Amino acid sequence: MGRYPRWPIHFALIGAGIVMLVPFYWVLKTSVSGENIYAYPPSIVPRHIHPFFYIDVWYSIPFARYFLNSVAVSMIAVVCNVAFNALAGYALTHGFRGKNAVMLLFLSCMMVPFQATIIPAYLITGKLGLLDSWLGLALPQCSTIICIFVFKSSFDAVPRSLIDAARIDGLPEWRIIWHIMLPLSRSAIATNVILAFIWSWNNFLWPLIMTRSADMQTLPLGLARFLSYQEDTTGALYAFCIMVLAPGLVLFLMAQREFIQGLTSGATKG
Amino acid sequence: MLRPRTRQALLLWCFLAPSLAIFLLYRVIPVIWNLVLSFQYWSPLKAAEFAGWDHYEDLWFDDVFWQALWNTLIVIASAPIGIALALGLALLVNADIRGRNVYRTIIFLSYPLMTVAVAIIWRWMFDERVGLINYAARTFDLVDKPIPFLNSFTWALPSVIVANIWQMLGFYMIILLAGLQNVPRELHEAAAIDGAGAWHRFTRITLPLIRPSLFLAFVVGMLNSITSFDLVYVMTGGGPGRATEILVTYIYKLGFVQTKFDDAAAVTIVFFVLLISIAWAANRFTGGNAGAVETE
Amino acid sequence: MRRRSVVKAALAGATVLAAPAYLRAQSSKKLSILTWNIADQQELFKQEFADFKAANPGVEIEWLDKKGPDLPAFYQTQIVAGTPPDIVDLQGAIWVDYAANGGLVDLTPYLQKEPDVAKRFNADYLKGWVYQGKTYLLPFYVAKTLLYYNKTMFQEAGLAGPPQSFDELLGFSEKMAKAEKTGFLTLNFDWLYWPLFKMNGIELLSPDGKKAAFNTPQTADVLAKLAKATASGGVNKISWTGRWVEPNGAFAAGTVGMLHAHSSSYFFVKGQGPWINGQTLGAAQLPGYWSTPTNHGFAISKGSKNPDLAWKFITHVTSDKWASAFFKNRSVLTANLAADNAGLAEMEKTDPLAAAVLRTQIEHTDKLTGNWPLPYDAELKDAFWPEIQNAALGRKEPQKALADAERTVNRLLARKA
Question: What is the pLDDT at residue B178?
């Protein structure tokens, strides 16, 4: 374990925490008090706290329907991500002809901004007959290169001896993945789940372009309702943002046990 | 009956297939579409005509393009700052202290927040008249006059970068945390027993073993100019003047505000080539193979 | 051959007749309409749609609404995919681009067939939707720039009323500028600042639109004066760098003497500034009565499958009855003469200040400027505006800024020729 003073660490982390929290605090404060953020001087403590903005959000937009759509799309995206990325990451831990080309392809695929792909992506989705559907909304995000590499580096760290032993025992590849690789890569899975969820949950431009019917829209699209400049609705706007934030945060809280480097994980890898 | 090697190769390609299919549809084909389009004159209502190098020539003489390119390079160069900060935080949060779950959550909190909310809040924080930062600076007598962060040609881009780093810290952190899980604790303990100091342990043990995560974090950081599209658009709209215009916002404006998709395609291709070059250089610098580590 | 087609026609006819009534109704006319950021008018639109459907049975209406920056992205993707909404609400000058490329239906034949429609609108506003002699949109709602002034600050500086000339405007600004207070602020997007130049007799382009015409000693003089006033605090710096929230917020804070903005600013500023009432806020025309309009209009997409039905719809929505309802709900001018006059008369009784602001919108509509029916308006803006910024903020000498702007603009125009 090593003995070293803990308090400098706490000090640094508290400092970092404050910096991270200050803007966030303001978002929260405005969402419960509706105070105009452009009032001067800025007030630290909110006056008149009330939850009406949250109720406002619920009724201003078809919140339940949008929420359902977002949940469906994100679930599809997360499940596909974990499955496809783990498989791809595993494949990349082996040497095979064309591996470098594939790695290069993956890396270069990241270098395309989504804004430049809107029109072809729309046309392709149209050709697949997936416009205005959950699968169509989820499809572009069903695999992400970053997460493939997270899996790859996690799988790379699994000692070769374990895999060789399994092969000698005659285990088929998918069993190796399922029984050996994945249990040792729980933090990679957690990372993948969190990131895939956040990316598909917060995605704004793609649902904007490819949904036409009002009941297929996802939660971020409801944002437009609160950004109308004629109304001073910053309270509702922030309440909306907090409500959109909540599920991702809950997921992170649930998954973050996987980020603990305990003695157990060290032992199995050793 | 296939030979075992070939069968294994086939199996590996099958594993790669779903991801490859999605990238083919939604990344590769759009890039090719952009490439072809950059050599044509086209608009959504007209048929295409061959344009040769005209669009690239136009870019060469386009002041806005060069300004956007320069700004993008600055944004990319700021990525290591965020990554270094996140690495520090990841190490601290990985240490065996009480409440690290809480710290971890607090640092991560900014990432799932919708970028529009981040942009609006930071735009307020940097506001010259009513912003929090100027208010604090004046309360603590740090400056005489309020600093026009987002209105100044010199401070606007750094302000956007600060907001971007704030938002991305949590993201870098979990990438690096996932990498830190791959460093066996016993190595540290053994080294400590042998008398190695903390810094020595960090540079000799931790750093090499998290190279893949660092590489990944750097690649993501490089793409932060892409991910900060919403941030720039809402915080400054590319202004004042073109002080915060980056290639991504320029691509969007060319395509959807000026309906010049063919010019936008040319900028996209230039941007793509730029990023590939930087990524390739980074890959070589970290030892090739996407920084992967040889185990055992 | 003939027998086969007769049989085919007979079969088709039989299937149509055999289909149950609800299926037949579903296969009849459907209209899709895309609006620009007016989701708050949901109730009103529901009523309008119901009214239209009652008069035209069997019609289905699909309503889409997108925020301003998102609408062009959405609309253009739909055009490429071949499924553009039948009717689209457009703001500013982006319609010219679509019209020039053949994306909008020419409404002139419809207007000729139904002359009453054109008569219901303010002729000047309707003229704003003409490109190369053809009308492409019907006015939906309009806003043009006016001069708001802070009566309290005017009194403190010993000024009797709004300025009557450009020099007076700058002079008044100087008088009111002290410490954090500034004299004049203008919005700058979509050519809203242009009346400042037009009132000094400056033209942007030559009459044939082929060359820049603004690089004159007169313009350099105006720019120099603006730069000097900006440096001394008479003209607020935010005029040249702000977008929407900042300039309006600054005026709402009560520290700016005059705001040059369009009528939509009134409601935002009033919401932010509790000091605003009839005694403290004045609404006037800019010296010379020039103003830049920011208008919304309804256009019909070329790819529409029911252009005639779409025409009926937009004449329905801009009719006296519904324009009046819209005026009442949104407190904005509709360019429909009957609706506006009646609405204003009502408003004088309930909210005289708002009425005063809106009254400026129907005055001097013959002096509209800053709207050039050019398909490359956005590029022209981008070529011209940064240099004005540079000069006004003192980063470049006015002569140099104008010369650079002229070069960029002429290069742009030469490419488009």
Answer: 80
Please, what are the domains in chain B?
61-295 (1.10.3720.10)
- Say whether pLDDT at C18 is over 70: no
- Structural domain that includes position A4: 1-50
pLDDT at residue A94 greater than cutoff 60: yes
Count how many domains chain A has.
Answer: 2
Q: Which residue of A has its CA nearest to C67?
A: A224
Instruction: Kindly state whether residues A100 and A216 are assigned to the same domain.
Output: yes
Q: Do C250 and B127 touch (CB under 8 A)?
A: no
DSSP single-letter state for residue B259:
-
Q: Could you say which of 1.10.10.1100, 3.40.190.10, 3.40.50.720, 3.30.230.10 is the CATH number of the domain covering C27-143+294-361?
A: 3.40.190.10
Gap between the Cα atoms of C234 and C199, Å rounded: 19
Share of chain C residues as helix, strand and coil, in percent rounded to the nearest 5: 55, 15, 30
Among B241, B256, B260, beta carbon nearest to C72: B256
Q: Within 10 Å of residue C304's Cβ, how many Cβ atoms?
A: 21
Residue of B26, B94, B272 to mutate, testing the A interface (most A Cβ within 10 Å of its Cβ):
B26
Asked if residue B240 has a cis previous peptide bond (ω within 30° of 0), the answer is: yes
Q: How far is the alpha carbon of B1 from chain C, nearest alpha carbon, in Å?
A: 47
Which one of A209, A221, A223, A237 makes the best mutation probe of the C interface by having the most chain C beta carbons within 10 Å?
A209
Same domain for A180 and A229, yes or no, is yes
Domain C145-291+376-416 class in CATH: alpha beta
pLDDT digits (tens, 9 = 90+) for B230-257: 889 888 888 788 889 999 999 999 988 8
Contacts of A59 (CB under 8 A, 6+ apart): none
B240 touches chain C (CB under 8 A): yes
For the segment B56-95, what is each residue's pLDDT rounded down to a tens digit? 998 998 888 999 999 999 999 999 999 999 998 888 888 7
- Read off the pTM: 0.87
